[in-house]
């Protein structure tokens, strides 16, 4: 994996001179399958920021998050032969990222602070709909706080929806949950966030 990063600068220059930067993922995947492993740098470059953002929202220690991201891309590279080109590559990659992160966090005995479920019995009309009224910066800061209190699988699901703009359908494919189950989880997290906002307002 390390040599993919070592060749990154050289490969960027190569892409600029050949125009390959405009090619889609399938082009590079086929090159990798044909033995041109350096082409994997393109895949890493395109997706590492998004993958790191997802992982880092759950794993606050940067070094640990980077380790998990590297493990994800190693698995992506090793599994490329199994990728069927008729499916969406980003969704396929995110599924590996989701499963690898969950697995790594379980191995490392990742701890989270469970959220009290005392908000669940509050009628919806009593929970202030202030989420849409606060700034994006405040919203993301609050989301970060809540994410640390969720189980990893729920936290990753929420990150993909609110931070990486994945659709309910894609999240369903990535996580293996039904679309109905994803909607329930998203609804629950919205209630949690609104409840946390109310606690801040009242404090």
Q: How is the topology of this model organized?
A:
Layout: H1 2-6, H2 8-18, H3 25-33, H4 40-58, H5 62-79, H6 89-107, H7 136-147, H8 152-162, H9 168-175, H10 179-202
Helix pairs in contact: 4-5, 4-8, 5-6, 6-8, 6-9, 8-10, 9-10
Describe the structure.
The protein folds into two domains: 1-108, Rna Polymerase Sigma Factor, Chain: A; 124-202, Winged helix-like DNA-binding domain superfamily/Winged helix DNA-binding domain (Arc Repressor Mutant, subunit A, Orthogonal Bundle), CATH 1.10.10.10. The protein is elongated and about 60 Å long. It has ten helices and no strands. Helix content is 67%, strand content 0%. It starts with a helix and ends with a helix. The chain is mostly helical.
SSE succession: HHHHHHHHHH
Pick out the low-confidence regions. Answer: 1-15, 17-21
Helix content: 55-70%
| Beta strand count | 0
The radius of gyration over CA amounts to: 19 Å
Give the oligomeric state: single chain
Question: Characteristics of this structure?
Answer:
Rna Polymerase Sigma Factor, Chain: A; disordered N terminus; about 200 residues; 10 helices; 2 domains; mainly alpha; Arc Repressor Mutant, subunit A
